[in-house]
Design a protein that fits this description.
Layout lengths: L7 H8 L3 H19 L6 H21 L8 H22 L19 H18 L2 H12 L4 H8 L3 H33 L1
Length: 194
């Protein structure tokens, strides 16, 4: 390949859409761009797309604005090619492509065990509440399950707010003790079977 030096006459012919000059331009820079891109891009189709987009942009700029330094036309073409290449690489990395034989990704947004765990937890809470004295069970249900306001609970139980706090503390302590006892039993059973 012989290298060509460019001048104002060559650029003015390109600007005037001279077919012979355009043919020379596309062949000459097409080969140079192919040599440049083949080491950076593996896909022949992508190389061709980048080459064509570079040629289109350069010719459009030459026709609309012209080139200030015709002797630097080669550097200008390579700079445009670099920009097109970077744009293409950015767009390729935005959309991750999976191999066709790759397994489907796991959808972590949905926890399939949550309903089962939730149901087990509800059952455990109900069992613990049933094991508590009726007064504690009633207080905890009103406060946590029915979500009644504390002043309403005080009225229903006929106690003041300070005594409600004492009753609530005792009920929570009994609930916690029952829960820990069941958790220890469950852990012991799990160790026995493993």
């Amino acid at each position: 390949m012989t290298f060509v030096s460019f001048d104002a006459e060559y650029v003015s012919k390109l600007r005037a859409a001279d077919s012979e000059t355009e043919t020379h331009f596309t062949r000459y820079f097409g080969e140079l761009l192919f040599l440049k891109l083949r080491y950076r891009i593996r896909s022949p189709q992508l190389i061709e797309d980048i080459r064509q987009e570079t040629m289109l942009r350069v010719l459009k700029i030459v026709r609309i604005k012209g080139v200030d330094h015709p002797e630097r036309l080669g550097a200008f073409v390579h700079a445009v090619c670099n920009n097109v290449l970077l744009e293409q690489l950015r767009s390729e990395t935005r959309h991750f492509q999976m191999a066709e034989d790759a397994p489907d990704p796991v959808d972590e947004s949905v926890d399939l065990d949550a309903p089962l765990i939730g149901e087990e937890m509800r059952e455990l809470i109900d069992n613990i509440l049933e094991a508590l004295p009726a007064k504690d069970r009633s207080l905890l249900r009103m406060l946590f399950l029915e979500e009644l306001p504390k002043d309403e609970i005080c009225r229903l139980l006929n106690v003041d707010a300070n005594y409600l706090r004492v009753l609530l503390h005792r009920a929570k302590s009994r609930f916690r003790a029952e829960y820990l006892k069941r958790a220890a039993t469950s852990e012991a059973a799990r160790k026995a079977f493993s």
